[in-house]
Task: inverse folding
């Protein structure tokens, strides 16, 4: 985002924090309703452009949002939306993307309030791994020619009754409004959940399953390196032969046998 949109996003997030007072149901409702607003904006280009038109005063845009959505969403959602559209955005897409982010944060806030954030984060990570490891499923969810409703039905069949309701809502939004690779989108959501708990996520590929004690030692070592609590997510990858590969943000720590062999090959050539 350019500077104007970054400032607009920050103010919109402040509005979200102010609106999410009360029970976890307020946050859950706000998140779901923001996703519904985004679906309307995705479908109606003229409305989307009008709400982000910087040539029109912010107060006029806020009034337009109230005419369109007032009475159809909760007061908390309307307060967030009114604040967001009143800001000056560098691009129309930045407004819509921020509403998506605010919806995600509201739902994760609800999960935290109900003590279910850890479960939601773990489910999002595991779902990302399942999709990445299943090319047919990933293709079905990434197929841009397939109607959004068909993708929603597919993810509902996979998850209903097996995950937290918030995980399902987040997953539905990802697959029906796909902007990046589906597996990557779930990883980003898992990272967002970890950030909500002021943690860093380490994505680990290991040749064999790690024991609880090994995970704890790895997390402690990474904690010393990065100076923050580390949430370790492990994916078993036998192709590594032995050892593991750790991704923390843009950092890669390759302690696998295949990695050592590759470094040896490069040194010999």
Result:
């Amino acid at each position: 985002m350019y500077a104007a949109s970054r400032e607009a996003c920050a103010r919109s997030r402040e509005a979200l924090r102010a609106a999410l007072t009360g029970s976890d149901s307020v946050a859950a409702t706000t998140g779901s309703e923001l996703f519904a607003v985004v679906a309307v904006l995705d479908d109606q280009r003229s409305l989307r452009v009008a709400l982000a038109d910087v040539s029109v005063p912010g107060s006029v845009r806020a009034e337009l949002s109230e005419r369109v959505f007032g009475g159809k969403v909760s007061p908390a959602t309307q307060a967030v939306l009114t604040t967001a559209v009143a800001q000056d955005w560098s691009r129309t897409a930045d407004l819509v993307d921020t509403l998506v982010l605010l919806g995600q944060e509201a739902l994760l806030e609800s999960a935290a309030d109900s003590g279910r954030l850890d479960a939601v984060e773990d489910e999002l990570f595991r779902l990302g791994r399942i999709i990445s490891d299943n090319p047919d499923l990933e293709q079905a969810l990434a197929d841009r020619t397939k109607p959004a409703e068909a993708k929603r039905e597919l993810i509902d069949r996979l998850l209903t009754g097996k995950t937290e309701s918030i995980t399902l809502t987040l997953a539905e939004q990802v697959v029906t409004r796909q902007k990046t690779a589906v597996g990557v989108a779930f990883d980003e959501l898992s990272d967002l959940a970890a950030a909500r708990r002021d943690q860093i996520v380490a994505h680990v590929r290991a040749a064999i399953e790690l024991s609880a004690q090994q995970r704890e030692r790895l997390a402690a070592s990474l904690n010393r390196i990065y100076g923050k609590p580390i949430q370790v997510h492990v994916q078993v990858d036998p192709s590594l032969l032995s050892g593991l590969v750790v991704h923390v943000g843009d950092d890669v720590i390759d302690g696998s046998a295949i990695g050592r062999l590759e470094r040896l090959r490069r040194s010999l050539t």
Notes: Residues 92-113 form the longest helix (22 residues).
